[in-house]
Amino acid sequence: MVDQPLLKVENLYKYFPVSQSIFRGLLGKQVKVVHAVDNISFTLKIGEILALVGESGSGKTTVGMNVLGLQVPTSGKVIFDGIDVAYWSQGRIGDSDDIDRNGLAKLSNRKQVLLLRRRAQMIFQDPYESLNPRQKIFEIVAEPLDIHGLSLSESDREDRVRDALEICGLAPADHFWDRYPDGLSGGQRQRVVIAGALVLEPELLIADEPVSMLDVSIRAELLNLLLEIRNKRNISIIYTTHDLATAGYFTDRMAVMYLGRIVELGPTREVLSNPKHPYTKSLVSVLPAPNPRRQRERVILSGEVPNPIDLPTGCRFHPRCPVARDDCQKIDPDFVQVTAEHKTACLFVQ
After folding, report:
1. What is the CATH number of the domain that holds 298?
2. Domain annotation covers residue 24
C-alpha cells in the first residue's frame, strides 16, 4: 500500500437542526441540533480498509454520506485526492477560482463533480430496498454508465457489466442479467449492488453495513469478496458496522465511534487485542472467544445512550462508563497516543 492518503477528513462536524414550533421560533428560542458527527478526523490510504464501528446512532453512516458529498458538512474538510469534497457539496459550483487559499483543488463545474463521483461509490445496507424491482439486473448495473455519460459501444458496455457481475461471483453474467431482483437470493442481490458500485471502476468504496441484512452463513463470502476486490483493484474501503467480529475479520484499521466522536483509532488487531477506551473494552468483551475455556470477563454497560440533542458535559461516555470519575463530567478528553498508530480519548489512559 502507498503511504500517501487517498482521503483525509479534518475536524468534520455534521449537525441536523430539530424542527420546532412556530411559537418557539417567534420567541427567538435557539434552534436545537442533533450532533450526528462531532469533530472527527482520520485518513485513508490507497488500498486500505478502515472500519467505522459503534452502536446505531454513533454517526458511522453520516460520515460516509459526507465523504461522498451526499450531505453538506456543517464544518470541516473532506479532502479526496487533493479535492475538497466539502466545498462543492456546499453548492459552490461555478466559482471562477478553482484553487482555495490552502492550495486545495475546487470543483468549478458539474462535469468535474461527476468525475469525482465516478471515483467514489457506495454499497448500501439493504439490497431489498436499494435495487429497483422493475429493472433487470443488466439495467441496474449498467445505469451508472448511462448516468455518467460514458460513450461506450454496446459491446464495451456489455463487457463492463459482465466484468462487474463476474468479479462479484455472479458467473456466467449472461445467466443473471436478464433476471429481475425478485428472482435472486439476498446474497445475490447484494452482489448486484456491489457490481453496480464497481462498474465505474472507482478508487473508494463506502460499504455501509453491507452484510448486516444477510444470513450469517453467507456473510463471510461477501467479506471475502470485498477483500478480493481490494486486492485485485487496490480499492480503498470504508466499512461501517456495529459488529466488531466482521470488522476484525478483514479490516486494516479500526475507528470506534460513540455519539458522533471517534473514541479510539488504531490497527484493527491492536485495538481488539489491547483496547484502551472503556467503551471499546465493553464492545470487545462480548465478542465470542476462540477458546471457550478462556471466556472474557463481560463488561455490560448500564443506562441508555444519551440524547444527541442534549449531550452530557465533559466526556460524553461518562454516564455509562464503569470507571468514570468526577473529572470525566468536566473535561472533554483529547486523544492520547498509546502507540505510534494507536490513540484513544480517555483521561485515564497513560
Report:
1. 3.40.50.300
2. no
Assigned domain for 349 exists: no
Query: What Rg value do the Cα atoms of the chain yield, rounded?
Result: 22
Residue 132 phi/psi, 5° resolution? -75, 115
* DSSP state, residue 4: S
Q: Is 265 helix (H, G, I), strand (E, B) or coil?
A: strand
d(CA 321, CA 302): 8
Range of 313's domain?
A: 5-19+29-344
Which run of H or E residues covers position 307? none
Q: Is residue 272 part of a domain?
A: yes
pLDDT tens readout for residues 254-290: 999 999 999 999 999 999 999 999 999 999 988 877 7
H or E element at residue 76: strand 75-80
What are the average pLDDT values for consecutive 10-residue runs of the chain, which has 350 residues? 80 88 60 91 96 93 91 90 71 47 52 76 90 95 88 89 95 94 93 95 94 86 93 95 91 96 97 95 85 73 88 93 92 94 91
Cα separation, 161 vs 205, in Å, equals 18
Cα–Cα distance for residue pair 175/168, rounded to 1 Å? 14
Residues 32 and 223: their CA atoms lie apart, in Å, by 39
350 found inside a domain:
no
In 10 A of CB 17, how many CB atoms?
10
Distance, C-alpha 282 to centroid of its chain: 22
Task: Give the integer Cα–Cα distance in Å for 203 and 158.
Answer: 21
**pLDDT tens track for 23-56:** 555 555 667 899 999 999 999 999 999 999 999 8
Task: Tell me the three state secondary structure of residue 201.
Answer: coil
Number of domains in the chain: 1
